[in-house]
Write a structure and sequence with these properties.
Elements: H1 6-15, E1 19-21, E2 33-35, H2 37-56, E3 61-64, E4 69-70, H3 72-77, H4 80-83, E5 85-90, E6 97-99, E7 121-124, E8 127-130, E9 140-143, H5 148-153, H6 155-162, E10 168-177, E11 192-202, H7 207-224, E12 232-236, E13 248-256, E14 259-270, H8 272-282, E15 302-303, E16 310-311, E17 314-321, H9 322-333, E18 334-338, E19 344-348, E20 359-363, H10 369-383, E21 390-392, H11 398-408, E22 412-416, H12 418-422, E23 427-432, E24 438-442, H13 446-455
Parallel strand pairs: 3-10, 20-21, 20-22
Antiparallel strand pairs: 1-2, 4-9, 5-6, 5-7, 8-9, 10-11, 11-17, 12-13, 13-14, 14-17, 15-16, 18-19, 22-23, 23-24
Helix pairs in contact: 2-9
The chain binds glycyl-adenosine-5'-phosphate.
């Protein structure tokens, strides 16, 4: 049986150390979460797989890690100061604030059902902060609302240092911040998020075919990560719903417990960003200097060496949220099974490449020095293989250990028992998460057994 509701998932994530409400000892901070010992492994694995697919396994993408604190002019000329907003309404009766376009029923307060709402007004989602010791009207900067702008402003730096020819892309994974009016649905809509973004620069006129290519490539990626095709939906934005920079956007949506919703957006950003960072300097007659520290100094055009043609590249942007990706992967993996003895087993059937813990080594009894020492030796050997985190589970309760590792999706549990010590050659029990089958493997072969398992 698959996941029925978000509450079961939230409880599991807290119980097993995936995700905690941030600052919960002080009542939390709405829309902000901390990732626990298991969650951070899952998140790192997802980001690593994305980076491999988008950078290492291709020959046309470079990586970048740009700053979070962003000069206000970048976000002025990108259009975010004027347009990165959601429509805010207040309920005059219960005083709650809501996003007008996300109300459950049009014109009706989500909280008290009143229809006495204010007119919607734009609420800018960017977080402002001050930079330096002087706080005045000009000393502010923003926490970036998307990682993309750091890529655009470094376009020339990357071009100049890598001698790339178009088409090519720049990939980045990093935090972004949005002061969402109503964060909700657990980690689906948060105020501090992480994005995995690629800006892929192409020749104008070739943008539509590249847009199709990236929609198809990203679909294949998510299927390879374990999301089933029937839970993925593709939503083409209507003209009136497009972001200020986009000519066409297709969302890859997932069937979450709260409904089908966006996990990744793939936009055709045209030459909007590179063009407006360029235009703002040329219109003002500034070519290579910053005037009063007010305007961009780089011209983001590209000259095709073969034809001599000069143009501002178009950009195709696949942009996925790490939180929404992990949420989809946990939902997909969540399985409840009824065992022969009538008990229910909850198991997260992650694909092994993203499983947070690769194997757990469990001594059968916690107070037996020989068992603990053998198990420690095996744990250390497996840890040195470089396949990811190996857990050492010294609680002395094998049933509990299996239940825990099923619930966090550990593909293999290795138990060191008294037979291990007595037999010659020594063997351990290896239990498979999905089949619950147990086999005995010689200790001398356990490293190659695990390596083979993770190679397949
Ligand atoms: N650079 C393009 C961009 O930022 P977006 O559609 O606003 O486009 C891209 O965001 C992705 O970032 C979304 O598909 C989603 O996965 C994630 N995302 C955006 N806002 C989010 C939020 N408040 N909480 C969690 N994830 C969010």
């Amino acid at each position: 049986m698959a996941l029925k509701n978000m509450e079961d998932l939230v409880a599991l994530c807290k119980r097993r150390g995936f995700i905690f409400q941030s600052a919960d000892i002080y009542g939390g901070l709405k829309g902000v979460y901390d990732w626990g010992p298991i969650g951070v492994e899952l998140k790192n694995n997802v980001k690593r797989e994305w980076w491999s697919a988008m950078v290492y396994n291709r020959d046309d993408v470079e990586g970048l890690d740009a700053a979070i604190l962003t000069n206000k002019l970048v976000l002025r000329y990108s259009g975010h100061e004027d347009t990165f907003s959601d429509p805010l309404v207040d309920c005059k009766k219960c005083k709650m604030r809501m996003r007008e376009d996300k109300l459950k029923e049009k014109g009706v307060c989500d909280y008290c059902g009143s229809t006495d709402l204010t007119e919607p007004r734009p609420f800018n989602l960017m977080f402002k902060t001050t930079v330096g010791p002087i706080v005045d009207d000009e000393s502010y900067a923003y926490l970036r609302p998307e990682t993309a702008q750091g890529i655009f402003t470094n376009f020339k730096n990357v071009m100049d240092t890598t001698s790339r020819k178009i088409p090519f892309g720049i990939a980045q994974i990093g935090k972004a911040f949005r002061n969402e009016i109503t964060p909700r649905n657990f980690i689906f809509r948060v105020r501090e998020l992480e994005q995995m973004e690629l800006e892929f620069f192409v020749k104008p006129g070739e943008d539509e075919q590249w847009h199709k290519y990236w929609i198809d490539t990203r679909k294949k990626f998510w299927i390879s990560m374990g999301l089933s095709e029937e839970n993925l939906h593709f939503e083409v934005h209507k003209k009136e719903d497009l972001s200020h920079y986009s000519k066409a956007t297709t969302d890859i949506c997932y069937r979450y417990p709260h409904g089908i919703d966006e996990m990744e957006g793939i936009a055709n950003r045209t030459d909007f960003d590179l063009g407006s960072h360029t235009k703002n300097q040329s219109e003002l007659g500034i070519t290579a200097k910053v005037k009063n520290n007010q305007h961009s100094i780089s011209e983001f055009s590209y000259t095709d060496v073969a034809t001599g043609q000069k143009f501002v590249p178009f950009v195709i942007e696949p942009s996925a949220g790490v939180e929404r990706s992990c949420l989809a992967l946990i939902c997909e993996a969540y399985t409840e099974e009824t065992l022969d003895n009538g008990e229910t087993r909850i198991v997260l059937k992650f694909k092994k490449n993203i499983a947070p813990i690769k194997a757990a080594v469990i001594p059968l009894a916690k107070n037996n020095d020989q068992l603990v020492s053998k198990a420690t030796e095996i744990k250390n050997e497996l840890q040195s293989l470089g396949i990811g985190r190996i857990a050492f589970e010294n609680t002395g309760n094998i049933g509990k250990a299996y239940r825990k590792h099923d619930e966090i999706g550990t593909p293999l549990c290795i138990t060191v028992d008294f037979e291990t010590l007595e037999q010659n050659p020594q063997t351990v029990t290896v239990r498979n998460r999905d089949t619950m089958e147990q086999i005995r493997v010689p200790v001398s072969e356990i490293a190659s057994y695990i390596q083979d398992f993770y190679k397949k």
